[in-house]
């Protein structure tokens, strides 16, 4: 029996996943978590065979959460189930330690197959992203500017583009506003962007918002 921890901040999504997985006799939803801190608390207290993880949750989330899970429970497989259908998000999640990446518009059969594969110790990448990831790997000299950003830089410029202030981001990431400002300046320099309007345009063009 595959014991799954579902981590998503939307109750309706967790309920939907529970319903889908209930049709599989070899999979059971053993617990749910609504934010990153709750995920860490659950994996410290209970044994799971897999975490089905949303990238965007309150408190600790995304790449930072994947890295924390890897530190706390090195062998626990992580399957990311995300709304982001861009190869750049999958690549960063896999590099951080996730074993699989699947988009939320996937059909139930694909989700169940992904859970079985990742829980067995193998890797899984959303079929719709495979070609893009392969070409992204091959064409390293033609990568978009944002692919040169560190995970933290990428996280911060996305939040800025989505309309969050430096103070809001600082509170969310438990960093100082000065540190966030430094990340912002460094990131915008790498992107070749000089103002907020250009950043928003760039974000829209690359489906960040």
TrEMBL record:
Pfam families: GerE, Response_reg. Keywords: DNA-binding, Phosphoprotein, Transcription, Transcription regulation. The modification 4-aspartylphosphate is found at residue 54. It comes from the Bacteria. The keyword Iron does not apply. One of its GO terms (biological process) is regulation of DNA-templated transcription. SMART domains: HTH_LUXR, REC. CDD domains: LuxR_C_like, REC_NarL-like. Transmembrane segments: none annotated. Signal peptide: none annotated. Residues 142-207 form the HTH luxR-type domain. One of its GO terms (molecular function) is DNA binding. Residues 3-119 form the Response regulatory domain. PANTHER family: NITRATE_NITRITE RESPONSE REGULATOR PROTEIN NARP (PTHR43214:SF41), TWO-COMPONENT RESPONSE REGULATOR (PTHR43214). This is Two Component Transcriptional Regulator, LuxR family.
């Amino acid at each position: 029996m595959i014991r799954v921890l579902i981590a998503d901040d939307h109750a309706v999504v967790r309920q939907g996943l529970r319903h889908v997985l209930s049709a599989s006799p070899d999979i059971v939803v053993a617990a749910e978590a609504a934010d990153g801190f709750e995920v860490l608390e659950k994996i410290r207290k209970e044994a799971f065979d897999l975490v089905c993880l949303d990238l965007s949750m309150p408190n600790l989330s995304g790449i930072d959460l994947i890295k924390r899970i890897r530190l706390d429970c090195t062998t626990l497989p992580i399957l990311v189930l995300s709304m982001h259908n861009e190869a750049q998000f999958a690549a960063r999640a896999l590099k951080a330690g996730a074993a699989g990446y699947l988009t939320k518009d996937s059909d139930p059969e694909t989700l169940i197959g992904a859970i079985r594969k990742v829980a067995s110790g193998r890797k899984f990448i959303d079929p719709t992203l495979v070609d893009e990831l392969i070409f992204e790997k091959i064409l390293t000299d033609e990568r978009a500017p944002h692919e040169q950003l560190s995970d933290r830089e990428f996280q911060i410029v996305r939040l800025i583009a989505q309309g969050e202030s430096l103070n809001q981001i600082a509170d969310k990431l438990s960093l100082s506003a000065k540190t966030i400002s430094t990340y912002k300046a460094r990131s915008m320099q790498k992107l070749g962007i000089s103002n907020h309007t250009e950043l928003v345009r760039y974000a829209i063009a690359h489906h960040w918002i």
